[in-house]
Amino acid sequence: MSEPEDHTPEEESPKIDAVLIADMADAVDEADRRWLSRTLLRLHPADASDALEQLDREVFCRAVGLLGGELAANILIELRDEYRRDAVRNLPGEVVRSALDALDSDDATAILEDLDEERRTALLKDVAPRERAQLEQGLAYDEETAGRLMQREFVAVPEFWTVGETIDHAREEGERLPEQFYEIYVVDPGMHPKGAVVLSMLLRASRDTALTDIMVPLESDIVGDMDQEDVAYQFQKYSLAQAPVKDGDGRLIGIITVDDMVDVIQDENTEDLLALSNVRSADGSDTVIEAVRARAPWLAVNLATAFAVAAVISLFEGTLDAIVQLAILMPVVAALGGNAGSQGLAVSVRGLAERELEGSAARRAVLRETLTGLVNGFIFALGVGAIAFVWFRDGMLSLVIAIAMLATFLWAGLSGILVPLGLKRMGADPAVASSVFVLTLTDVIAFFSFLGLATLVLI
Q1: What is the mean pLDDT of residues 126-137?
Q2: What is the CATH number of domain 18-142?
Q3: pTM
Q4: pLDDT of residue 120
Q5: What is the tens place of the pLDDT at every residue in 48-79?
Q6: What architecture (CATH level 2) is domain 156-264?
Q7: Which of residues 44 and 105 earns the better pLDDT score?
Q8: Equal CATH topology for 156-264 and 288-458
Q9: Considering the domain 288-458 in this protein, what is its CATH number?
Q10: Pick from 345, 362, 373: which is nearest to 275 by CA?
Q11: When you count CB atoms within 10 A of the terminal residue's CB, does the N or C end of the chain come out lower?
């Protein structure tokens, strides 16, 4: 284990590789707090958190306990939720309180979320009244809302101020300013935002310029109880770097910056991707028990739907006994139909998430998916029918599977768009529930159309 030199701006940071992680584990075993702390401080906070997360979970907890107050707050907040919760549990109360003081209010709120009610209350008692009120305000909002994401530090000035007065005020505020911000808000006496002044415009203008002359209208409309997914949509739609957050009466209560939204957008996209596969969690730190708990419930649902499909097949038991070839070809119809339904479903869920299926756009999407299913169905009906004829030398059997394939593709296209649209209208999450309905219904239609036609035509 090599001793790191004192960090300077010109010094190259350590490379995060297997050697460094092994050295960190050795430092924990040897209780070498000095080496571990200095090594982490030489890394960017995000890289330092990544390095800590690559330790075994038990070694990670010991590392946090060893570092104590030397675990920088900006490293703590970069840890993934599961690791941050473990870290906060293993840190003394005074260390956590010091981290709360060092972080912006939105990050401090995230730390408080990781604490149980009793410890949270005890820590808040030691926080200055103004900061405590801000933190309690954030905790009063539901999780995954704008109120939980926003930071309460912002710059708001009266309508009648000039550029010079605004710059002087910002300098006087000093430590009370947010760590990063991109806009200053112009407000009326009731703290209702009237517009925003972008910092780049502020710096270009002369000191005697009135703020109202360089003020731009607010493009976003975010309130504290708005779902974070809707907030992310506004950031994407208007290409925002920062947005104000208002309360129910339209008063300015905080701001959200783009760095928080990048995390939200990634989290929401990951959540939708996992939901399409009926998985609630896929964190690398999950234990076997946690993975089983996340996946088993949906597997149980799929078990029930599988028996529903089996019940449909059982209706045609006599047909299958009479024509063995049907059993050979059945999986072809179901597999292709299921894939077609999954393709349409993925496109539909993505469109709903991006707000692309509103009003007439939804009707156009239904028509597009229907025609896509029809065209694909016709193409693959010809192909599968030809293969079946070459294989079994039975023209009627080829005709049956071709018609069944066309019907299945048409239904797969329709269900892939109508099911998520219907679930959305009923208030359900299309990403979570759609796949069960679409795949089950597609299988039912595939087997029913194929075996039903075979019963009518071949027997």
Answers
A1: 83
A2: 1.25.60.10
A3: 0.69
A4: 87
A5: 999 999 999 899 999 999 999 899 999 999 99
A6: Roll (3.10)
A7: 44
A8: no
A9: 1.10.357.20
A10: 345
A11: C
Q: What is the mean pLDDT of residues 364-386?
A: 93
Domain ranges, ordered by start, for the chain: 18-142, 156-264, 288-458
Amino acid identity, residue 311?
A: A
395-406 per-position pLDDT tens digit: 999 999 999 999
Contact 49, 82 (CB under 8 A): no
Position 439 scores a pLDDT of 86
Each residue's pLDDT tens digit, 163-181 = 999 999 988 887 778 878 8
- Name the token pair of 68: 């104590």
